[in-house]
Structure formats: C-alpha cells, structure tokens
Target: Dehydrogenase E1 component domain-containing protein
Amino acid sequence: MQNNIQDLTYRVRHHSTSNDSIKCRLIDEIEHWKMSRNPMNRFRRWVERNGWWSDKDELELRSNIKKQLTVEKAHKPPLEDMFNDVYHQLPSNLQEWTWKKNCLLVGASQLFAYVVINMREFDFLYNYVINLNSLNQLRDALLLWEGNDPYE
Model:
C-alpha cells in the first residue's frame, strides 16, 4: 500500500534579505498564516481539543523546566571533567591547555610546583618557567607563546 502526502507550504518571512515580501502581499495575510495556519498552533489546538494538553499542564511544565535550569546554572562542573572519562592519558594539546589555564588561575608558588611536578614532558616550557620569578612574567610568556604580544 502506498502512502501519499500532499503538502502546502507558505513562506511567512522574506525569501531573502533583498526580497521584501510586504511588497507583494498584505501584512494581514501574513499574520493570518502565522497565527491560524501555523502548524505548531494547529497541533496545539488539536492536542487541547482531545484533552491531552491544557494550560495547567503548560504552567507545570514551564515551572519544572525553570527549576531544572536553575539547578543546572547553580552547579557547573570544572571544565576538565569533560575529558576525565574520555582519555586514558590526555593528548599533548589538552595537557598544554590545562597547563595554560592553571597558569592564569593559580598563585605563582602553586603554579611553579605544578609545572615542576606535572609538566616535565614539556621540556622547553619547563626550563623556561622555572627561571621566571613572577606570575606576570609567566602570563606574558603565555601570551607571547600564543602569538599575542602583551605590550601592543
């Protein structure tokens, strides 16, 4: 058995930025299609007519979604967590990213300890960083390393 679907579309918006559809049709016509012929509005009216949805259901859903979004905003896990269960050992570009992020977020003494303990595989950085004497010098070195001159 073959199913056929006949479809009629109506462009509510302009075809392109250079085509003003108001020149060839009335605003009332556009509004009529937007409100009465919009498939989402029609579907909602059908669902409500069948008793499967109501304004009360909508208020409850919106309230639950708002609560869920509030909870999600309240707790943001550390960015590194997105890699924790992906790699057995982080690829070097992610190790560098973690190192740079830590350089900008932690104090100088903690940073130098972190570099000495964790980053020996980046010999060129390790040797350079252990000779720096301030966090500002380290920040400037990172900016230069990324191709940004901090003094421009």
In short: Residues 55-74 form the longest helix (20 residues). The radius of gyration is 29 Å. The mean pLDDT is 73. The CA atoms of residues 119 and 126 lie 7 Å apart.
